[in-house]
Write a structure and sequence with these properties.
The structure is a homodimer of 144-residue chains. With 144 residues, chain A is α/β, with parallel strands linked by helices. In chain A, helix 1 runs parallel beside helix 5. The radius of gyration of chain A is 14 Å and the shape is globular. Chain A is 38% helix and 20% strand. Chains A, B: GO terms for molecular function: tRNA-specific adenosine-34 deaminase activity. Chains A, B: Its cofactor is Zn(2+).
Chain lengths: 144, 144
Protein backbone atom coordinates (compact mmCIF):
# COMPACT_ATOMS: atom_id res chain seq x y z
CA UNK A 1 0.00 0.00 0.00
CA UNK A 2 1.19 3.52 -0.85
CA UNK A 3 0.87 5.20 2.53
CA UNK A 4 1.67 8.70 1.25
CA UNK A 5 -1.13 8.32 -1.30
CA UNK A 6 -3.43 7.46 1.61
CA UNK A 7 -2.32 10.66 3.34
CA UNK A 8 -3.03 12.60 0.12
CA UNK A 9 -6.52 11.08 0.03
CA UNK A 10 -7.01 12.46 3.54
CA UNK A 11 -5.78 15.90 2.42
CA UNK A 12 -8.43 15.79 -0.31
CA UNK A 13 -11.11 15.35 2.35
CA UNK A 14 -9.87 18.60 3.98
CA UNK A 15 -10.05 20.33 0.60
CA UNK A 16 -13.68 19.36 0.14
CA UNK A 17 -14.42 20.89 3.54
CA UNK A 18 -12.63 24.13 2.59
CA UNK A 19 -9.85 23.42 5.10
CA UNK A 20 -6.13 23.89 4.45
CA UNK A 21 -5.55 20.52 2.75
CA UNK A 22 -3.29 18.43 4.96
CA UNK A 23 -3.70 14.72 5.61
CA UNK A 24 -1.84 11.99 7.41
CA UNK A 25 -1.91 8.34 8.34
CA UNK A 26 -0.19 6.42 11.13
CA UNK A 27 1.13 2.98 10.31
CA UNK A 28 2.05 0.10 12.63
CA UNK A 29 3.58 -2.97 11.02
CA UNK A 30 2.04 -2.71 7.59
CA UNK A 31 -1.38 -1.56 8.74
CA UNK A 32 -2.88 1.92 8.90
CA UNK A 33 -4.06 2.33 12.51
CA UNK A 34 -5.22 5.96 12.19
CA UNK A 35 -6.03 8.42 9.42
CA UNK A 36 -6.97 12.06 9.76
CA UNK A 37 -7.29 15.33 7.89
CA UNK A 38 -7.18 18.92 9.01
CA UNK A 39 -10.47 19.93 10.65
CA UNK A 40 -9.53 23.20 12.35
CA UNK A 41 -12.25 25.38 10.79
CA UNK A 42 -15.01 22.76 10.84
CA UNK A 43 -14.28 21.74 14.44
CA UNK A 44 -13.58 25.37 15.46
CA UNK A 45 -10.51 24.15 17.32
CA UNK A 46 -6.94 25.20 16.49
CA UNK A 47 -5.57 21.91 17.83
CA UNK A 48 -7.44 19.91 15.15
CA UNK A 49 -4.56 19.66 12.70
CA UNK A 50 -4.40 16.30 10.91
CA UNK A 51 -1.35 15.13 12.90
CA UNK A 52 -2.84 15.83 16.34
CA UNK A 53 -6.09 14.09 15.40
CA UNK A 54 -4.23 11.07 14.00
CA UNK A 55 -2.12 10.78 17.16
CA UNK A 56 -5.29 10.89 19.28
CA UNK A 57 -6.98 8.21 17.15
CA UNK A 58 -3.88 5.97 17.06
CA UNK A 59 -3.45 6.17 20.85
CA UNK A 60 -7.09 5.22 21.32
CA UNK A 61 -6.72 2.36 18.86
CA UNK A 62 -3.70 0.79 20.57
CA UNK A 63 -4.74 1.94 24.07
CA UNK A 64 -1.34 3.49 24.72
CA UNK A 65 0.08 7.01 24.46
CA UNK A 66 3.41 5.58 23.33
CA UNK A 67 3.39 5.19 19.55
CA UNK A 68 6.87 3.69 19.55
CA UNK A 69 7.39 1.58 16.44
CA UNK A 70 4.74 3.50 14.51
CA UNK A 71 5.32 5.73 11.48
CA UNK A 72 3.44 8.83 10.39
CA UNK A 73 3.02 9.78 6.74
CA UNK A 74 2.00 13.43 6.39
CA UNK A 75 1.51 15.49 3.24
CA UNK A 76 2.98 18.73 4.67
CA UNK A 77 5.90 19.40 7.02
CA UNK A 78 4.40 19.69 10.53
CA UNK A 79 4.11 23.02 12.39
CA UNK A 80 5.70 23.42 15.86
CA UNK A 81 2.56 22.18 17.66
CA UNK A 82 2.39 19.02 15.56
CA UNK A 83 6.14 18.38 15.54
CA UNK A 84 6.03 18.68 19.33
CA UNK A 85 3.14 16.19 19.47
CA UNK A 86 5.02 13.75 17.23
CA UNK A 87 7.92 13.86 19.69
CA UNK A 88 5.64 13.62 22.75
CA UNK A 89 3.92 10.54 21.34
CA UNK A 90 7.25 8.79 20.65
CA UNK A 91 6.47 8.09 17.00
CA UNK A 92 9.50 6.35 15.51
CA UNK A 93 9.42 7.55 11.92
CA UNK A 94 8.04 10.54 10.09
CA UNK A 95 7.60 10.64 6.31
CA UNK A 96 6.93 14.14 4.94
CA UNK A 97 5.49 14.88 1.48
CA UNK A 98 6.59 18.49 1.06
CA UNK A 99 8.16 21.29 3.05
CA UNK A 100 6.29 24.12 4.77
CA UNK A 101 8.12 27.38 4.10
CA UNK A 102 6.03 29.46 6.54
CA UNK A 103 6.09 27.40 9.73
CA UNK A 104 7.76 24.04 9.11
CA UNK A 105 9.23 22.69 12.33
CA UNK A 106 11.19 19.75 10.92
CA UNK A 107 13.99 21.79 9.42
CA UNK A 108 12.44 24.56 7.30
CA UNK A 109 12.14 27.26 9.97
CA UNK A 110 13.12 25.39 13.09
CA UNK A 111 13.90 21.76 13.88
CA UNK A 112 12.03 20.32 16.85
CA UNK A 113 12.33 16.73 15.69
CA UNK A 114 16.09 16.39 15.59
CA UNK A 115 17.11 18.72 18.40
CA UNK A 116 19.95 17.95 20.78
CA UNK A 117 18.92 20.50 23.38
CA UNK A 118 15.42 19.02 23.51
CA UNK A 119 16.81 15.49 23.31
CA UNK A 120 14.34 14.73 20.53
CA UNK A 121 15.06 12.33 17.74
CA UNK A 122 12.45 11.04 15.36
CA UNK A 123 13.71 9.46 12.16
CA UNK A 124 12.61 11.83 9.38
CA UNK A 125 12.39 10.93 5.70
CA UNK A 126 11.41 13.42 3.03
CA UNK A 127 9.32 11.77 0.31
CA UNK A 128 9.00 14.76 -1.98
CA UNK A 129 5.75 14.31 -3.85
CA UNK A 130 4.32 16.68 -6.48
CA UNK A 131 0.76 15.97 -5.39
CA UNK A 132 1.62 17.02 -1.82
CA UNK A 133 3.05 20.36 -2.93
CA UNK A 134 0.45 21.12 -5.63
CA UNK A 135 -2.58 20.47 -3.42
CA UNK A 136 -1.44 23.07 -0.90
CA UNK A 137 -0.11 25.58 -3.45
CA UNK A 138 -3.36 25.46 -5.46
CA UNK A 139 -5.39 25.94 -2.28
CA UNK A 140 -3.57 29.14 -1.35
CA UNK A 141 -3.56 30.44 -4.95
CA UNK A 142 -7.36 30.20 -5.01
CA UNK A 143 -7.62 31.88 -1.60
CA UNK A 144 -5.61 34.95 -2.62
CA UNK B 1 -9.60 35.99 41.69
CA UNK B 2 -6.04 34.65 41.76
CA UNK B 3 -5.89 32.89 38.40
CA UNK B 4 -2.48 31.30 39.00
CA UNK B 5 -3.85 29.78 42.22
CA UNK B 6 -6.69 28.32 40.15
CA UNK B 7 -4.08 26.80 37.81
CA UNK B 8 -2.25 25.37 40.86
CA UNK B 9 -5.54 23.83 42.04
CA UNK B 10 -5.75 22.12 38.64
CA UNK B 11 -2.15 20.87 38.99
CA UNK B 12 -3.17 19.33 42.31
CA UNK B 13 -5.86 17.32 40.51
CA UNK B 14 -3.13 15.87 38.24
CA UNK B 15 -1.07 15.00 41.31
CA UNK B 16 -3.94 13.03 42.83
CA UNK B 17 -4.17 11.06 39.58
CA UNK B 18 -0.41 10.32 39.65
CA UNK B 19 0.14 12.55 36.60
CA UNK B 20 2.99 15.04 36.19
CA UNK B 21 1.31 17.92 38.07
CA UNK B 22 0.61 20.72 35.61
CA UNK B 23 -2.54 22.80 35.54
CA UNK B 24 -3.87 25.77 33.65
CA UNK B 25 -6.84 28.05 33.20
CA UNK B 26 -7.91 30.27 30.30
CA UNK B 27 -9.40 33.63 31.15
CA UNK B 28 -11.54 35.94 29.05
CA UNK B 29 -12.41 39.33 30.52
CA UNK B 30 -12.29 38.43 34.17
CA UNK B 31 -13.91 35.01 33.84
CA UNK B 32 -12.33 31.56 33.66
CA UNK B 33 -13.71 29.99 30.47
CA UNK B 34 -11.66 26.76 30.64
CA UNK B 35 -9.65 24.86 33.21
CA UNK B 36 -7.63 21.68 32.72
CA UNK B 37 -4.93 19.49 34.20
CA UNK B 38 -2.51 17.05 32.67
CA UNK B 39 -4.27 13.75 31.86
CA UNK B 40 -1.72 12.08 29.59
CA UNK B 41 -1.41 8.81 31.55
CA UNK B 42 -5.07 8.51 32.53
CA UNK B 43 -6.31 9.28 29.01
CA UNK B 44 -3.47 7.27 27.42
CA UNK B 45 -2.92 10.13 24.98
CA UNK B 46 0.30 12.14 24.71
CA UNK B 47 -1.62 15.19 23.47
CA UNK B 48 -3.55 15.46 26.76
CA UNK B 49 -1.30 18.04 28.38
CA UNK B 50 -3.21 20.61 30.44
CA UNK B 51 -2.68 23.39 27.90
CA UNK B 52 -4.00 21.43 24.89
CA UNK B 53 -7.07 20.31 26.85
CA UNK B 54 -7.75 23.86 28.07
CA UNK B 55 -7.48 25.23 24.51
CA UNK B 56 -9.93 22.57 23.30
CA UNK B 57 -12.39 23.36 26.10
CA UNK B 58 -12.09 27.16 25.64
CA UNK B 59 -12.67 26.90 21.87
CA UNK B 60 -15.75 24.79 22.48
CA UNK B 61 -17.00 27.26 25.08
CA UNK B 62 -16.71 30.32 22.84
CA UNK B 63 -17.44 28.37 19.63
CA UNK B 64 -14.33 29.77 17.93
CA UNK B 65 -10.79 28.51 17.40
CA UNK B 66 -9.46 32.04 17.75
CA UNK B 67 -8.77 32.72 21.44
CA UNK B 68 -7.70 36.30 20.71
CA UNK B 69 -8.12 38.46 23.80
CA UNK B 70 -7.86 35.45 26.12
CA UNK B 71 -5.06 34.74 28.60
CA UNK B 72 -3.67 31.42 29.75
CA UNK B 73 -2.27 30.91 33.27
CA UNK B 74 -0.14 27.77 33.44
CA UNK B 75 1.89 26.40 36.35
CA UNK B 76 4.83 25.16 34.22
CA UNK B 77 6.53 26.58 31.12
CA UNK B 78 4.89 24.86 28.11
CA UNK B 79 6.68 22.21 26.02
CA UNK B 80 7.06 22.71 22.23
CA UNK B 81 3.70 21.00 21.47
CA UNK B 82 1.82 23.24 23.89
CA UNK B 83 3.71 26.43 23.01
CA UNK B 84 2.86 25.69 19.37
CA UNK B 85 -0.81 25.21 20.29
CA UNK B 86 -0.85 28.49 22.24
CA UNK B 87 0.40 30.27 19.11
CA UNK B 88 -2.00 28.39 16.79
CA UNK B 89 -4.98 29.34 18.96
CA UNK B 90 -3.99 33.05 18.96
CA UNK B 91 -4.05 33.36 22.74
CA UNK B 92 -3.05 36.93 23.57
CA UNK B 93 -1.28 36.50 26.90
CA UNK B 94 0.55 33.71 28.66
CA UNK B 95 1.34 33.76 32.39
CA UNK B 96 3.84 31.09 33.47
CA UNK B 97 4.40 29.96 37.08
CA UNK B 98 7.85 28.40 36.76
CA UNK B 99 10.37 27.43 34.11
CA UNK B 100 10.85 23.98 32.61
CA UNK B 101 14.56 23.23 32.38
CA UNK B 102 14.13 20.03 30.34
CA UNK B 103 11.82 21.06 27.51
CA UNK B 104 10.57 24.61 28.10
CA UNK B 105 9.65 26.21 24.78
CA UNK B 106 9.08 29.77 25.96
CA UNK B 107 12.72 30.65 26.42
CA UNK B 108 14.34 27.92 28.53
CA UNK B 109 15.44 25.58 25.73
CA UNK B 110 13.87 27.17 22.70
CA UNK B 111 11.48 30.08 22.18
CA UNK B 112 8.46 29.30 19.99
CA UNK B 113 6.32 32.05 21.47
CA UNK B 114 8.44 35.07 20.61
CA UNK B 115 10.02 33.93 17.36
CA UNK B 116 10.60 36.25 14.43
CA UNK B 117 11.17 33.48 11.90
CA UNK B 118 7.87 31.88 12.88
CA UNK B 119 6.19 35.28 13.11
CA UNK B 120 4.85 34.27 16.53
CA UNK B 121 4.25 36.75 19.29
CA UNK B 122 2.28 35.98 22.41
CA UNK B 123 2.75 38.35 25.33
CA UNK B 124 4.54 36.27 28.00
CA UNK B 125 4.70 37.16 31.68
CA UNK B 126 6.61 35.10 34.21
CA UNK B 127 4.81 34.99 37.56
CA UNK B 128 7.41 33.03 39.50
CA UNK B 129 5.54 31.16 42.19
CA UNK B 130 7.07 28.84 44.79
CA UNK B 131 4.04 26.57 44.75
CA UNK B 132 4.42 26.07 40.99
CA UNK B 133 8.05 25.03 41.27
CA UNK B 134 7.69 22.93 44.45
CA UNK B 135 4.74 20.86 43.20
CA UNK B 136 6.71 19.68 40.19
CA UNK B 137 10.05 19.28 41.99
CA UNK B 138 8.46 17.20 44.76
CA UNK B 139 6.71 15.01 42.21
CA UNK B 140 9.96 14.10 40.45
CA UNK B 141 11.87 13.67 43.75
CA UNK B 142 9.34 11.04 44.82
CA UNK B 143 9.51 9.33 41.43
CA UNK B 144 13.30 8.88 41.53
Amino acid sequence: MNFMQEAINEANFSLKLNEVPVGCVIVKGNEIIARAHNLKENNKDATCHAEILAIRYASKKIDNWRLTGCSMYVTLEPCPMCAGAIVQSRLSKLYIGTFNPSCGACGSIINLIENERLNNFVNVKWLYNDKCSSIIENFFKLKR
